Amino acid sequence: MDRAFIMGNGGSGKTWLAQQLAQRLRYPVFHLDDFHWLPNFAGERPRDERNRLVAEAADGNSWIMEGIYGSVLTQVLSLVTALIWLDIPDSECISNLIQRGQTGGGTDEQFEELLEYTRGYRLRKNHMNSFDAHEQFFEGHSLQKLKLGSRSDATAFLATV
After folding, report:
1. What is the spatial distance between Cα 96 and Cα 90, in angstroms, rounded to a whole number?
2. pLDDT tens digits, the chain, 161 residues: what are they?
3. What angle do CA 104, 109, 113 make, to 5 degrees?
4. Separation between Cα atoms, residue 11 and residue 101, nearest integer Å
5. Does the keyword Calcium apply (predicted)?
6. Rounded to two decimals, what is the model's pTM?
7. How far is residue 43's CA from residue 137's CA, in Å, rounded to a whole number?
8. What is the pLDDT at residue 112?
9. Residues 22 and 30 sit within 8 Å (Cβ to Cβ)
10. Rounded Cα–Cα distance for residues 43 and 37 (Å)
11. Long-range contacts: 70-76, Cβ < 8 Å, 24+?
């Protein structure tokens, strides 16, 4: 598991799992929100700048990346040695987000948009940041892959690392 990518809906626990893995494996962890958004969620980062930042992060021999962004996964998929999909029920994701609250300096309005976006994860069609796209990435990945359906599944997995 030299280069792991964790994908899933908002609030599924991607950041938590990435931090736990990074601590155990002593790998750097990269949060795709940091590449996708300008500081304080002031808007989306220009795509060429985001792609450059992702490429620089992926240049290492060992890393963990986490995020919902299928377009970024497409950029690094050939380097990913372990693909982890957090397929957590939407209701649990929403609950997790509400418990966590807004992070990174975003506004209340942006948080409401995040909740709505999270609710649409299984409904979006022909969209890279959706259940359907994540399922296609997962099914097509030929190296190590793991689908976790709950926080207890993730905790059990971590006990093996």
Report:
1. 10
2. 899 999 999 999 999 999 999 999 999 999 999 999 898 878 899 999 999 999 999 999 999 999 998 999 999 999 999 999 999 999 999 999 999 888 767 788 889 999 999 999 999 998 999 999 999 999 999 999 999 999 999 999 999 99
3. 85
4. 10
5. no
6. 0.93
7. 27
8. 92
9. no
10. 6
11. 70/7, 70/127, 70/128, 70/129, 70/130, 70/133, 70/134, 70/137, 71/128, 72/32, 72/35, 72/36, 73/5, 73/7, 73/128, 73/137, 74/128, 75/51, 76/3, 76/5
The residues facing 31 across adjacent strands are 66
Token pair 């359906």: residue: 149
Q: What count of residues does the chain have? A: 161
